């Protein structure tokens, strides 16, 4: 073999090695509508750093806060289209593809975060995750990212469902959310999270519902007067990514990423619980009235939602898993 031929062969081998190396490095962009200092944002940043460390930089997670990649629905659409994108989403949005998933956002179902975390690791729930990948091209890495209890944010005091009659309340545009808010007495009005502040400021909507850390993070205390602690839905969210991007990973890297997603879901959830009450204290200090309320009338009002949305068997499964 001549020197020229040897040099040519070496160049081909080197280019092939570089190509293999390039293929082994995968970047997934994770977006959130929340601020960087929100517990979800802090959890995602920690998750990204630990994935890079555990995979030797072969899996790169880039985190985008404050709706930089769009609203949650837009990010899910990007992921379904095959882009290397993921997001933290309320699981009810995914019930469009797997109706049973709506149970994670059902009203007054989970008493504690630990209950939701336990059910999210159950065989029944993980089976719905497999179904989601098949039907929607989305992979749920972990469904234990807890954002806190949703409370009613209004201009007028609320003591019961009757006080919400005719009130246009922003909520998430999934059936279980819409029907829960309607059953509570308000008029559900789905709009993007990033538009809630201006919609309240301009009077396009009368009210909203959100968890304590998000009330503070989005500065909604500037445009509402009352927070009523209804806790009607425990916002348990899922970290989901494009199946196309996911399937670029080796089996070893998939296991690492899944394990770290669950671990950091618990970390972020711990921050949510820790910072939630402090957030409400800060909201109260701004002049907003924080009120406790008798939950019995609200629980009675939303009870028909389960049968309306065919979620009674799923609710029974939750109770069975939790032995309640």
Overall, the morphology is globular
How many domains make up the coordinates? 2
Would you list the SSEs in sequence order as H and E?
HEHEHEHHEEEHEHEHEEHHEHHH
Query: Strands of the biggest beta sheet: in what spatial order?
Result: 2-1-3-10-4
* Radius of gyration from CA coordinates: 22 Å
Mean pLDDT: 92
Structural class: alpha/beta
Largest sheet: 5 strands, mixed
The proportion of residues forming helix, as a percent range, comes to: 40-55%
Tell me what the CATH architecture of the largest domain is: 3-Layer(aba) Sandwich
**Total of helices:** 13
Weakly predicted, low-confidence segments: 6-23
Q: What fold name stands as the CATH topology of the largest domain?
A: D-Maltodextrin-Binding Protein, domain 2
What's the CATH H-level homologous superfamily of the largest domain?
Bacterial extracellular solute-binding protein, family 7
- How far apart are the termini? 77 Å
Let me know the number of strands: 11
Proportion of residues in extended strands: 15-25%
Subcellular location: Periplasm
Organism: Psychromarinibacter halotolerans
Keywords: Periplasm, Signal
Main location: periplasm
């Amino acid at each position: 073999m001549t020197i020229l031929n040897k040099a040519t062969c070496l160049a081909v081998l080197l280019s092939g090695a570089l190509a293999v190396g390039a293929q082994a490095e995968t970047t997934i962009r994770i977006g959130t509508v929340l601020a960087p200092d929100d517990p979800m944002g802090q959890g995602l940043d920690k998750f990204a750093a630990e994935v890079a460390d555990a995979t030797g930089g072969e899996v790169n997670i880039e985190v985008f806060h404050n709706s930089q990649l769009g609203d949650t629905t837009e990010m899910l659409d990007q992921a379904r289209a095959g882009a290397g994108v993921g997001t933290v989403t309320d699981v009810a949005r995914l019930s469009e593809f797997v109706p049973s998933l709506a149970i994670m956002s059902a009203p007054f179902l989970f008493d504690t975060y630990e209950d939701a975390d336990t059910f999210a690791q159950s065989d029944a729930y993980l089976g719905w995750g497999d179904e989601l990948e098949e039907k929607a091209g989305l992979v749920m890495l972990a469904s234990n990212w807890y954002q806190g209890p949703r409370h009613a944010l209004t201009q007028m005091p609320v003591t019961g469902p009757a006080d919400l009659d005719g009130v246009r309340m922003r909520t998430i545009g999934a059936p279980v959310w819409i029907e829960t808010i309607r059953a509570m007495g308000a008029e559900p009005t789905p709009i993007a999270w990033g538009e809630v502040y201006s919609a309240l400021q301009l009077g396009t909507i009368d009210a909203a519902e959100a968890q304590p850390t998000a009330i503070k993070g989005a500065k909604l205390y500037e445009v509402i007067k009352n927070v009523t602690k209804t806790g009607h839905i425990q916002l348990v969210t899922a970290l989901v990514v494009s199946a196309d991007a996911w399937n670029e990973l080796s089996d070893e890297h998939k296991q690492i990423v899944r394990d770290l997603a669950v671990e950091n879901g618990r970390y972020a959830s711990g921050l949510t619980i820790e910072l939630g009450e402090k957030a409400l204290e800060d909201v109260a200090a701004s002049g907003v009235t924080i009120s406790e309320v008798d939950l019995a009338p609200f629980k009675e009002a939303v009870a028909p939602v389960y049968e309306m949305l065919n979620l009674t068997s799923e609710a029974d499964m939750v109770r069975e898993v939790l032995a309640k």
